[in-house]
Amino acid sequence: MRRLSVIVMILVVGAGTIGAATGASRKGTVTIVHGLPGFTADVYLDDELLLDGFAPTTATDPLRLDPGAYDLALRDLGAPADSEPVLSDTLSVSAGSDLSVVVHLTQGGTETVSTFENSFGQVPAGGSLLVVRDVAAAPSFWVRVDGRQRIQNLRSGNERAVQLEPGPHLLALEAVGSGEKLIPPSRIRLDEGVVQIVYVIGEESAGNLDLMLQSVANLRSRPTGVLTGVGGLAAERDAFPAWATLSMIIAGSGLLLSAMAFRPRRHD
C-alpha cells in the first residue's frame, strides 16, 4: 500500500502586534520537500552538509534562515562534497518569508527544483483552504472534490487553491481531455483554519504518482458578529495590551513544533 507523507507546520499569526523594527530583523523559514522518486540525496546548503540520506516523500524540518541568498545542492548519497551536484538552485530568503522548496520532476520528466511561497493570509472563520501543487511528470489534470470539479487544467509547476468546508473529503485527479484517473481517489481531512497543501509527485509513465500533504495551521480569522449574551464582556476580555500579546507570543514560541509522519492513504 502506498503511504502519504504528512508535513505539519505550526505557525504563529497575529504578529502585527510586533513593531516594525522587530519585523525587519525576522528570519525566513524554508522547508525542503523531496518529491523525486528513486533519488536518495545528501543535501548541502552553502557547501555545508545539511542532511544526509534525504529520501523521497520526506521533508526537512523547517529551517530558520537569515535573509539572503543560499546555494542549495543535492548530491547522490555518499558522493564527495566537491562532486558535481545532481541538482542545484539558489534560494532567495527574505525577512518573514515562508518557502517550500520542492525537488521534483517537470511534466517532461526532467529533475528540477521549484520554490513556492506559503503566503495565504487568514482562512475565513469556519472554513479551510485546499491548495494543490502539481510537481509531477504527468499530464495536466482536473481536481474533483467529493465528485465535483473544483480545479481545472492544473499544469506542472503551478498551484491552485479552493476554499472548502472543514471535514473529510474525497480527492480525485483526472487527466484533462481523457478523464483518466491519475491516482485512485484519496480521502483527506481539512480542519478549520488550516491550509492543506497537496503535492502531486512522481511520474505517470513509471506508475508511481502519489500525494504528499503539508499542513499550515493557526490561520483562523475571528468570526464577526458573535452573540455572547454577556453585554460585551467578551470583547473587553480580548482587549490585551500590546506588550501582553507580545509576551504571550514570545513565551509560546518554545511550544512551536514541526513533525513528519506517515499514514496510509485510503483508496475507494
Question: Which tags fit this structure?
Answer:
single chain; four-stranded mixed β-sheet; six-stranded mixed β-sheet; mainly beta; 8% helix; 268 residues; 3 helices
Structure at a glance:
The protein has 268 residues and is mainly β. The protein is built from three helices and 18 strands.
Fold topology:
Blueprint: E1 3-10, H1 20-24, E2 28-34, E3 41-45, E4 48-54, E5 63-65, E6 68-76, E7 87-93, E8 98-105, E9 111-117, E10 128-134, E11 141-145, E12 148-154, E13 159-164, E14 167-175, E15 181-190, E16 195-201, E17 210-217, H2 233-237, H3 242-252, E18 258-264
Parallel strand pairs: 1-17, 2-8, 10-16
Antiparallel strand pairs: 1-18, 2-5, 3-4, 3-6, 6-7, 8-9, 10-13, 11-12, 11-14, 14-15, 16-17
Approximate shape: globular
Question: Reading side by side through the largest sheet, how are the strands ordered?
Answer: 13-10-16-17-1-18
Number of continuous helical runs? 3
Topology as a string of helices (H) and strands (E): EHEEEEEEEEEEEEEEEEHHE
What does the largest sheet look like? 6 strands, mixed
Can you walk me through this structure?
This protein has 268 residues and is mainly beta. The protein has one domain. It is built from 3 helices and 18 strands. The protein has helices at 20-24, 233-237, 242-252, and strands at residues 3-10, 28-34, 41-45, 48-54, 63-65, 68-76, 87-93, 98-105, 111-117, 128-134, 141-145, 148-154, 159-164, 167-175, 181-190, 195-201, 210-217, 258-264. Strands 13-10-16-17-1-18 form a 6-stranded mixed beta sheet, with no helix packed on it. A 4-stranded mixed beta sheet has the order 5-2-8-9, with no helix packed on it. A hairpin with a 5-residue loop joins strand 8 (98-105) and strand 9. The longest helix is centred in the C-terminal third of the chain and has 11 residues, at 242-252. The protein is globular. The two termini are 13 Å apart. 27% of the residues are buried. The model is unreliable at 8-24 and 222-268 (pLDDT under 50).
